[in-house]
Amino acid sequence: MEAGTAARVTWGLRRPCRGPGWGQSRRASLSSLSSSAERAARRAMAAAEAGASTAPEASLSASGVKQALISLSDKTDLANLGNGLQRLGFSIISTGGTASSLEAAGVNVTKVEEITHFPEMLDGRVKTLHPSIHGGILARRDQKHHLEALNEHGIGTFDVVVVNLYPFYDKVTSGAISFEDGIENIDIGGPTLIRAAAKNHKDVLVVVDHKDYPALLEYLEGKQDDQDFRRKLAWKAFQHVASYDSAVSEWLWKQSNKGDTFPPSFTVPLSLKSTLRYGENPHQKAAFYGDKSLSLVNVGGIATAIQHHGKEMSYNNYLDADAAWNCVSEFESPTCVVVKHTNPCGVASQQDILEAYRLAVKADPPDGWREIVVAPGYTAKGLEVLKGKSKTLRILEARRSGKGTLSLRQVSGGWLAQESDDLTPEAITFTKVSARAPEGSELSDARFAWLCAWLCVKHVKSNAIVIAKNNCMLGMGSGQPNRLESLRIAFRKAGEEARGAALASDAFFPFAWNDAVEAACRSGVAVIAEPGGSIRDQDAVDCCDKYGVALLFTGVRHFRH
Ligand SMILES: NC(=O)c1ncn([C@@H]2O[C@H](COP(=O)(O)O)[C@@H](O)[C@H]2O)c1NC=O
């Protein structure tokens, strides 16, 4: 690509553009088309007429000088960019703060107002919103009448536009910010520049990410035009603006619709965290995206976990780690949850975490290797020991999964949205409906069994049955087409230890006699906890009374389909 010469763009200065009579004086000055810029514009038009506009050289500005517009809030690597562009012969035009930083870095720069003949005004709300800027970005170089229009109005073309936006996201997530401050942090001129340049990417390179500066400079140094490169930048630019707008829109919805959870429409800003080796199965490609919704700031969870050691996480690893971590995050006391295929199959809560681990593993001993460990933190020694266990063991450090989020789930052609199941154990009231009341530890066992069932149903399909004793899960059954089948599986796992234990069900028992309730009673459990609400609730009460089992209704169902 032709290097051109570094020159300050001064040709726009010739016309006063403000106040009444602006049109007249403007026309008057334009009538004397004599500047070098206008001569250059004519040269560019001649080139367009000659059909040379698709060659890289044709992206020279109408003035014959290549121009870059730079307007950045985040000024990371700005000096390198400015010096690089200057070295390549670009004339640089910038907004106030960016121009000052460039000057401080020894780069020649022209302020936007020298082109627009308007000062930056309204506290920065209007800086670059001007035909002298947007005409120079949007004009099609292969359209004679576009270049004629630029020429008529004394507007030069821009070849490169580098913009990043007011840090709206950081501001509104950094703590208390007033509504007015939020509004002032919505960038208007920046997205407009980005969209204009991205639309005209055939002739204008648009950059929104400082990580792309080296590639931009390398591209500009090259001899070949590459429309793919330009299109990728344009894609990224529109994506950048779309993400930005989704944050603004989410924030505004929250400001104006307190308490109303479901907006009529919304956009979820996702960014690629990693591509994965494959999906659930090797023939499926897969990737992991982080969700940058404002409502998910500081909610922790697996998406923001740090991996300290081990093989790269797979698609199924993420699902399992998520199920285990969301489950363990529910407990206040030290708890260990073992998950297989997203089912919590061993859960123990003990003051000593090592003891919790031993008991949880005992409930469902690993049938092979352990794939992932997730914890809120590790001592240096602990990490060393775990690393020594296996080269592949994935060791993750995660922050507790938060509450109050919207849960989204895909179905063919749409998404289901619901509030996350944030009910705390304190919100559950155990109502004794049987003749016998649970005694001593039976009550806490019932509560723990219910908690386990509750945690299970958040991650596995109903029907869910959990048997627990001494703060330890003894057995669980889930995902079976009927409740009796889940119950049988849970009892098979619990074995003889089920005698005197508590049993919990995620939903009511539709039948009692010759069915799940009677089977549970005959297996020797001391307490059954279930939501209640069946038309045959009385059968369940009568059955428990017959066997001397305590029956508790919780009034809360925790289906997961
Ligand atoms: N109003 C405008 O015409 C306008 N043009 C560019 N900006 C933004 O101003 C910022 C740079 O400002 P400065 O160079 O003064 O630090 C950039 O983030 C850019 O997106 C604008 N500001 C906000 O809307």
UniProtKB/TrEMBL annotation:
Record-annotated MGS-like domain positions: 58-208
GO CC list: cytosol
Organism: Panicum miliaceum (Proso millet)
Family per record: Belongs to the PurH family.
A GO BP entry: 'de novo' IMP biosynthetic process
Protein name: Bifunctional purine biosynthesis protein PurH-like isoform X1
Pfam family, any one: AICARFT_IMPCHas
Secreted as UniProt keyword: no
Entry GO MF terms: IMP cyclohydrolase activity; phosphoribosylaminoimidazolecarboxamide formyltransferase activity
PROSITE patterns: MGS (PS51855)
Pathway membership, UniProt: Purine metabolism; IMP biosynthesis via de novo pathway; IMP from 5-formamido-1-(5-phospho-D-ribosyl)imidazole-4-carboxamide: step 1/1; Purine metabolism; IMP biosynthesis via de novo pathway; 5-formamido-1-(5-phospho-D-ribosyl)imidazole-4-carboxamide from 5-amino-1-(5-phospho-D-ribosyl)imidazole-4-carboxamide (10-formyl THF route): step 1/1
